[in-house]
Specification:
By secondary structure, the chain is of the alpha+beta class. The chain has a single domain, classed as Nucleoside Triphosphate Pyrophosphohydrolase (Alpha-Beta Complex), CATH 3.90.79.10. The protein has two helices and seven strands; from the N terminus they run E-E-E-E-H-E-E-E-H. The strands form two sheets. The protein has a four-stranded mixed sheet, sandwiched between helices. Strands 3-2-7 form a three-stranded antiparallel sheet, with no helix packed on it. A hairpin with a 4-residue loop joins strand 5 and strand 6. The protein is globular. It binds 8-OXO-2'-deoxyguanosine-5'-triphosphate and magnesium ion. It catalyses: 8-oxo-GTP + H2O = 8-oxo-GMP + diphosphate + H(+); 8-oxo-dGTP + H2O = 8-oxo-dGMP + diphosphate + H(+). Keywords: DNA damage, DNA repair, DNA replication, Hydrolase, Magnesium, Metal-binding, Mutator protein. Its cofactor is Mg(2+).
Length: about 130
């Protein structure tokens, strides 16, 4: 059976101390309670970078300029009902203060502690790359 490929854009915000922002998925959604990188689905006709800038504003209340999106790694993972393709950008600069507008919780986490937080299966390789790179 052929499953649709869904494009989801996500960001690893990195603060001046090298900690990474992760966010706990809200109750009532798929994968609720697991910790993810902020982001979301690209809408039809939307550029991926524009989608990420939009999601970071909707979810965290921050303004990010496209010049501050550094392409990093991607996840390609088969879920039961769709195939997830998720590029992850590194973001070290933004305007405004991060606030929780959407998630159950937010956490700033040292890369070597990310494995303490249960994440969706697609995210495991991304975490390993962050640990090595940051
Ligand atoms: N944002 C994000 N989504 C992830 C990660 N890992 C992972 O498997 N996903 C999956 C979970 C969902 O199936 C999909 C993202 O969908 P979503 O429902 O959060 O999308 P969205 O923010 O646009 O929210 P909505 O408008 O659909 O409510 O990607 C991750 O690290 N970050
Ligand atoms: Mg989202």
């Amino acid at each position: 059976m052929t499953l649709p490929t869904i494009l989801v854009v996500a960001a690893a915000l990195v603060d001046v101390d090298g900690r990474v922002l992760i966010a706990q998925r809200p109750e009532g959604k798929a994968l609720a309670g697991l910790w993810e990188f902020p982001g979301g689905k690209v809408e039809p006709g939307e550029r991926p970078e524009d989608a990420l800038i939009r999601e970071l504003h909707e979810e965290l209340g921050i303004e990010v300029s496209e010049a501050c999106l550094a392409p990093f790694v991607f996840a390609s993972h088969g879920y039961d009902s769709f195939h997830l393709l998720m590029p992850l950008w590194l973001v070290r600069r933004w305007k405004g203060v991060v606030v929780n507008r959407h998630h159950a919780a937010l956490a700033w986490v040292k890369p070597n502690r990310l494995s303490d937080y249960p994440m969706p299966p697609a995210d495991a390789p991304l975490v390993a790359h962050l640990r090595d790179f940051l």
